[in-house]
Design a protein that fits this description.
Helix content: 25-40%
Protein name: Stress responsive A/B Barrel Domain
Strand order of the largest sheet: 2-3-1-4
Number of strands: 4
Pfam families: Dabb
Strand content: 25-35%
Number of helices: 4
Distance between the termini: 43 Å
Shape: globular
InterPro entries: Dabb, Dimeric_a/b-barrel
CATH class: Alpha Beta
Largest sheet: 4 strands, antiparallel
CATH architecture: 2-Layer Sandwich
Structural class: alpha+beta
Length: 134
């Protein structure tokens, strides 16, 4: 009796796992996959609350761009110190786009160009990671 229940469980679990894999197969079309645009800013004056708040205010204007599906802004979290964590930056931006075309439109949008023009004096370094959802 125990073997029968165990066998039934294994067969059922395998079937559910296979269904999950088939239904969860990612869209491999690189033209249409969701894009995450992750930007990390190092402030010229890292101790200046005023500069940090001004940069955050500027990043918020990017939410007005039509192709931005979602935009979140962050500051360094007070998590435990580990060798794999880089906490040297000051402000981050995460913008999500439906596809590569939306991300490309964002780059040349007047609001984005104004943001760079009006706020770039606040940062000493910017690092960007763009990723395609798989």
């Amino acid at each position: 009796m125990v073997k029968s229940n165990r066998r039934k469980f294994i067969v059922t679990a395998a079937g559910l796992a296979a269904t999950t894999v088939v239904n969860g197969t990612p869209n491999m079309d690189t033209e249409k996959g969701n894009i995450a645009h992750q930007v990390y800013f190092w402030l010229k004056n890292p101790g200046s609350e005023e500069d940090r708040e001004l940069l955050i205010k500027g990043i918020k204007t990017l939410r007005q761009i039509d192709s931005v599906q979602k935009l979140t802004i962050g500051i360094v979290a007070a998590t435990e110190k580990r060798s794999v964590i880089d906490d040297s930056w000051g402000v981050s931006e995460l913008a999500l786009f439906k596809d590569l075309a939306g991300q490309a439109a964002y780059q040349i949008h007047p609001i984005h160009l104004d943001f760079v023009k009006n706020y770039s004096h606040l940062w000493s370094k910017v690092v960007i990671y763009d990723s395609l959802e798989v």
